[in-house]
Amino acid sequence: MKKHNYSAGPCILPQEVFEKSAQAVLNFNNSDLSLLEISHRSKDFVAVMDEVRALALELLGLEGKGYQALFLQGGASLEFLMVPYNLMKVDGKAAYLDTGTWANNAIKEAKLFGETVVVASSKEQNYNHIPTDYTIPADASYFHCTSNNTIFGTQMKSFPKTNIPVVCDMSSDIFSRSLDFTQFDLIYAGAQKNMGAAGATLVIVKEEILGKSGRTIPSILDYEKHIKAESMYNTPAVFAVYTCLLTLQWLKAQGGIAAIEKVNEAKANLLYTEIDRNPLFIGTADKKDRSNMNATFLLVDEKNQETFDKMWKEAGISGIAGHRSVGGYRASMYNALPLESVQVLVDVMKKLEEVVKQNEVTV
Ligand SMILES: *Cc1c(COP(=O)(O)O)cnc(C)c1O
Fold it and tell me: What is the role of this chain (predicted)?
């Protein structure tokens, strides 16, 4: 039986993506060749790259608006340094919002390039909320934020208005909700959380912000070189890129972001309602900032842990142990996770409440 997979990443993908990508490894497009043994410059693969780049922009409502989509390697973590390399002016500075571990890692890399202003941080409260009321220096080269904090279960519901370029790490909620994506000048996301196999990184960049840093950028780290080469500057992660294409095709067939957003809201509502109702559990993130992708919660009384862990494992649930820096539980409800899987988890939580009540009666 297929597990109810709550893994934070790499994570669940649509079943048809697993099936079609497996088929392509055996025989790609009826060519009697594997996807893995053909040139990335072959007609068949160039078509994959062209389509996935176009589809990414289409789904985000960014086609024809001066943006380019790239599928690079190195993960979101490489973008932590490609962003300052390409955008931070020599002798300039950059502004960062510190909302969690990943934001912090991005800040660390930016500091290697120049002055890095942390406009606000929720670190002191173990990142349980998204800071508000901060000012972004108008002379910074860009403002960087993280839309969804995968580890701490918080999500930015709105984004600050500023005249400088806005850069956003959307690794764990890309393609999960409707936003006006034109408010961002650069978006990046590792594929392995809502898009495809690990190995590819999506970068969406507004071309007009490039070429202004005054830095000499190594070719492989230069967005302009990647744009010019149509995301084929060197050999792309062919398998990962192909799985992204399949996932985005699946998403389009579901009705796009607006349709999946409704499902994601239903899943998040179902789980958070139970976390709030059930006296045995408590959510860790501020309610107003709760993530619809990663729900973090704790058992009020740790003595129930053994029973709960046994129960969810028996129910076929996988991957809800929290990140080691927060503990507790984390249920990652990415696009491909069905509502039924959330119902299974909620049922286990209710069952635990019954079991605990019965034990109290017998004691
Ligand atoms: C997982 C994650 C990263 C790290 O991604 P890699 O592709 O492993 O480098 C960065 N940012 C966020 C928000 C993440 O969830």
Answer: Catalyzes the reversible conversion of 3-phosphohydroxypyruvate to phosphoserine and of 3-hydroxy-2-oxo-4-phosphonooxybutanoate to phosphohydroxythreonine.
CA distance 194 to 287: 23
Instruction: Name the DSSP letter for residue 21.
Output: H
Tens-digit pLDDT profile for residues 314-343: 999 999 999 988 889 999 999 999 999 999
Report the alpha-carbon distance of residue 4 to residue 352 in Å, rounded: 18
Q: How far is the CA of 294 from the centre of ligand 1 (A)?
A: 13
Give yes or no for a contact between 163 and 138, defined as CB atoms under 8 angstroms apart. yes
- The fold of the 257-362 domain, in CATH, is Aspartate Aminotransferase, domain 1 (3.90.1150)
- Residue 119 DSSP symbol: E
Going through 181-241 in order, the beta strands assigned E by DSSP cover 186-190, 201-206
Q: Check residue 321 and report its DSSP letter.
A: B
Q: Is 104 exposed, middle or buried (0-12, 13-18, 19+ CB in 10 A)?
A: middle
268 Rama sector, left if φ>0, alpha if ψ -120 to 50, beta otherwise: alpha
Q: Is 50 a catalytic residue?
A: no
Q: Which atom of ligand 1 is nearest to the CA of 151?
A: 15
56 within 8 A of 82, measured Cβ to Cβ? no
CA distances from residue 265 to 167, 337, 338 in whole angstroms, order as listed: 25, 12, 12
Q: What is the pLDDT of residue 76?
A: 98
Out of 89, 173, 185, 193, pick the active-site residue.
Answer: 193
The domain limits of the chain are 15-254, 257-362
| C-alpha neighbours within 13 Å on the C-beta side of residue 87 | 28
Q: What is the pLDDT of residues 107-127, one digit of tens each?
A: 999 999 999 999 999 999 999
Q: Under CATH, to which class is 15-254 assigned?
A: alpha beta
Q: Residue 2 above 90 pLDDT?
A: no
DSSP states of 267-318 = HHHHHHHHHHH-TTEEE-S-GGGB-SSEEEEEESSGGGHHHHHHHHHHTTEE
Told to judge if 139 belongs to the known catalytic residues of this protein, a careful annotator would answer no
